[in-house]
């Protein structure tokens, strides 16, 4: 296959939302930050959509916030600072609605049917207009989603640079920055056996080159974190896999990333995003504990944190709350991919989270963690395939932000009301004893404990009060 | 509640297989090792069951081995030494057939309907007769299953001592030893919130005293390992749980166990048995990687190994093969609980493994590990509730042993035939290059790798040949 | 085994919450309906618990209703008539806290440690006091849970009669009636292969005799429905099962039940309760559609309805809402077992439902169904094993009732607000066309449709607006 | 969007395996049936691949059958007649290796990078060469996979006709016929809400037109069955769905299909293929019992049979064996999609079945059914994404056919050995009694049964012998 053909193939496959509009909207020569402050600003991409504002719970307007009030202070911090919401470029601007049985369904009016650099730039402008209308200051990106893959690494880098340059310019005068960037190491066939864990050494090198560049541009744009998404780092069957070798390679790769981060002076956090499976049968960063074990085994535990995604949590058999707490207790809670799955399906649906109870538990963890900065909440979430109106993009994000905002409000209510914490305190009250302290300080050996056990006789065991805990929890929402 | 009543309550609940036979068989005054060598030995408990012998694959006799031939050498080691099969006392002699919706179904003829020490001793004799007829040299036990729980710790210990003394005597003149012992910290209501992770400090002390004693008796009987089964070390809801505190307590507990092991001169391996859930919603030793992370975090990774159970593996979303390999690659593969689950049900069914493919993969790991000693294969497996004939106990064990034996034979066949290993070798051949070595030695930084990637151009990526690997694998069985 | 011994064995196994209190409370000679109307009524079993009253959402009292206000009218019907809440005798009064790994944990003060008829009667009095304090008019029972199993069918029937006579007397002067009764065909070992689908014909006959009696006593007490719980009607493996024969037997059994119902003049509804598995690997009444197919195949579809349990719905891979709608659309929605499962565990946890969103969807179905009478909402739900205070029994029921009440309030709010219905109406608006009508009336054959398709050209397809639907739905709660 | 652009878009999306080979192999002017009989026939598409022959279990040749011996007689029927194996055109010739996270990986040498009619015809020639080399007489197709979708229905039909004409010609002189055809109603965005159950009436009409044409061409080619794959007939959320209306529409659609089948004189079986979910959250033909209930409810049960797919069976929580038996007992077993899923992943992996135990159980059902004709075994199975060699296509099919052949051989061995059947016969022996007959004939009412139960006393209940059944089963393979 010739290079040019391969490039065209990628055009077809990656974007898959083109050749669509015969008459694209006129693309403005410049789009600066100022206009977004004006209420009557229409913008070039979403002229029908107003700036989204807080209107409170009683509004019937789907294009308004009911619970998210960016500037409102909660527990001494503005709501926007608790969340640091981020829009995921790939889902919002490159999501086509394709699924394993279906072609693209989404034909956004700003698409011109090409995967050209100029189209990439127009899309980036749309992104900034979207962020501003939504009132969100962060965005996240994959390198190959914001700029077209070229037929060579050099060409891909050049494409990326051109789009990054525009993003840099669009950021000017605004607070908008990348929450994080990443290298997309899973779409292209070269990565079919993984990137850092590929059976082919040439692919490892290619992946390293791609991550190097992605780290550079994230740094250049003022990104606050850099994410490693396991993508295809895993296996389909152990029969043809040398898992030990692959894990060693992955560790070498991460070591090189740490070294390069330091070399270029990037101060952001490096994040690993656990996911149990899909597309591979088994991903090496299965869940928070698995990722933590890997980092400890290879001496990398102080160099990385975790990006916990709620949908990945449930796919691995845990609640999102559990994964957040596991990360937190291991000192590794770095960022949250705020989405959710479907409780009855076995794949990653990446839905916007709408369950207020789950959001409340998430925020209970975040409050315990003292906030999430320099991480934030990235909406790694996509419209359903059948949601094809431009306004659906806004509705979905508003719904997700409002759900998280309700979660924060509820978590604070529970905290301030106090009876749930009191219930937990009471449950463990026996540990405040002399013996409790001795044990916690490592001073109680088995012989001493046996002596104590014999003195005590049958220990008292109290009700766990789970139904009461649930009643308190649910009554707060 | 008075003590005596509580004791009666425990009688009812723990055993649940009593008051059964009005006319128990006469219990022999002594049962020594000699008689088992005689073909016409009938024994006192299983008079209808012959000594189980190898008859080869063509036999129609359900009370014979088709594939397990204890003394046959495979890869320079006798089959019995590859496996070190062990009978689990609790399932085989205390399994009642009860389930969440049903009462006991199993009324073995040697039971007299009491949970007395004398009944416990008779049961222990049955265990030894069973081991001898089956031709198995190891057994595993829970403290409270081999001897009745008393109304005080002292009384429980006394009961245990009496039964242990008999076991010691029965072991004499035979090679029979415990593969491992453990303390059962889950049945009694005092452990409803866990043992080492209980919210009640008194329960922690009680658990320590019980483990101390169980370690002592395991050591006394010449046991080669000691297992910690997480039982109820976990949570039902995070709403009422201080997970950080509980995990710290668990670490303190393990540290004390390590210290005590050294103090009493026990040389066996300490083993943690991962399990994701059931009875708790979440167990702290979820899977091999989670347990490894815990051990690393608390500096215990050199003091413990893992006891991998196949049914627990599948409950946690992994294959058994995956869990074994994860343990092995972390240097933690210590013992195997050879059982399996049901692929369509969501709870621990603890079936005897009958899938030859799965057994083959298990044995591929064990061969890579150079064997499993001082661990072995414990049949943590139970008869189905509806299997109520005494011979069913033998049939189930024979079937499990034969399955594992086929697995070993197949694994060796695959190894010796060579084409599967060759397929894997070829898949990673590019790593034998200069660049491969540089990477593996940590000498390839991102800049060097980028340079190489640019030199190489688009890397070659070969077929993973998964269908061929599966064809080779399946053709060997 | 002698009969008396077997009886003692059952004593131990069935109840498992006895021998507990050395000093049981004095059991009152009579407990009539009057006292419950008085605010200062203490009762004999729950002296610390007041009559539970509606106090509104702002109360902090765990022993009060926040959302359930029995007499309040909603959509022209009192709340209590929408729900017809029922307490499940077995969970509330016979639940011991036992699980597959643990003994009983619940020692209620009114238990005297026996499984005698007199204890059964005292328990029945406690049931009526519980119902009155909770303000609930219905209860559900299994025959063997309200009265001790005897050593013969005759003795069991006699025990049952004695307890039923008391229940009849306690019902007098009150509105309390059984919502439904059932025969418990799963605990006793005789039912290990099933009841109506047992491989033993004698067990089929025994099951028939037991159901006959249970139908009689349900009728005698004025019960409004009779339930068949599949229990062990299913299989563990197809290898030893003749599924066709077993299903035919089940049909014969149901036919005989219908005939007997008519003979004794019982006007209540016969209900089948779908459940996919547990304790068996596969239950024949897997889900609503499976049960409907069975009923249609054997010509029984007009004689039965379904009792949908939410936890069973999720175990079978569906939402509760789906199962309710499936039952409703098949004309088979008869009763609801209001509980829920744990989204991360694979067994029946029978928790009280606390998810307001799920409760809202349940109530949307019930409103569409025009209510659920003569069925109701039975709390087939149990305290967690670790919840051991008497007040926990009340808290759990209050929490469950309040959750359902919020669901009703939310469902009505959504209905009255109208925009969700409007969204659905719009989605299907094209079916209001001439062609839509022709199709629905069966008048559009393929040739005509092809002609139309060619006339139309590419059809218009609108956004499904799922995110908007979810926003509207969630904003109502 | 202009028509021509939309057509190009579809080109990109549907096939996604193009622009690949700069130098496609010369396409032969004619390829008739004769050459395949010659051993030295190379063919035009697979010149490196010989005709696949039976070489027996000891061969090391991956391109030979070990167990499948087409002409060998088993139980009075040739192996090829037991199976009637079919190659699925879509997986084998249109499978690109794309997955939700990855682009196409498969670049077959005969592809020229277009989705033109001429490419479709070349692919059809490859299909026939593949069938002949494999020695398989049946193939299955989706209309839109064998011929390119046009910009109008008329154009699509014209494209289809051209390809069908070639297929007809290629069939000449050979025994090759379609096992079944179907209309692909899921890929195109117009079907995003379903086909027959779409919320848009125009889509219903379009779907009808497409099915009409697909039935016609299946009939024209001598196809023996016609399949309805539920595709997107289901819902994503009940919140925006009128399930009752959609199910009614589906019934109307099937009624029209039945009428049209009769009108054109198509004698083949109409088949519904149950699948629980994916791509929709819930498919209306969830499992065999659900589909059966639908057919019964709408009076269609005599007009349809079921096409059972093993991977769909496990996704719905059943074994494949269970679904086959459920279909058989409902008189609905029509065809088998011989594939399998991954026991640890929650989506449709459509792997070639390699589990001999599962294959044996499948064949036990087929033998009980007296064979499967006019249905057969269609390999609705695909190469893994990472399997990219042309020979992998052969290896996968050979492995799948050999697995089924082993299954048949084992099933016959078990049947002829007899002890498993004997075990089952004994288990139900009590039903051969007088009482058993009375019950089965509907002559035993509850009063009679109660009388019998009292006469019998406690019924005898025997061991289910599940472990013995498993031992017998496994020993045969």
TrEMBL record, chains A, B, C, D:
Superkingdom of the source species: Eukaryota
The EC number(s) this enzyme carries: 5.3.1.5
InterPro entries: Xyl_isomerase-like_sf, Xylose_isom_bac, Xylose_isomerase
Coiled coil: none
UniProt entry tagged with the keyword Transport: no
NCBIfam families in the record: PRK05474.1, xylose_isom_A
Homology family: Belongs to the xylose isomerase family.
Protein's UniProt name: Xylose isomerase
The organism of origin for this protein: Camelina sativa (False flax)
Organism placement in taxonomy: Eukaryota, Viridiplantae, Streptophyta, Embryophyta, Tracheophyta
Gene name of the record: LOC104734680
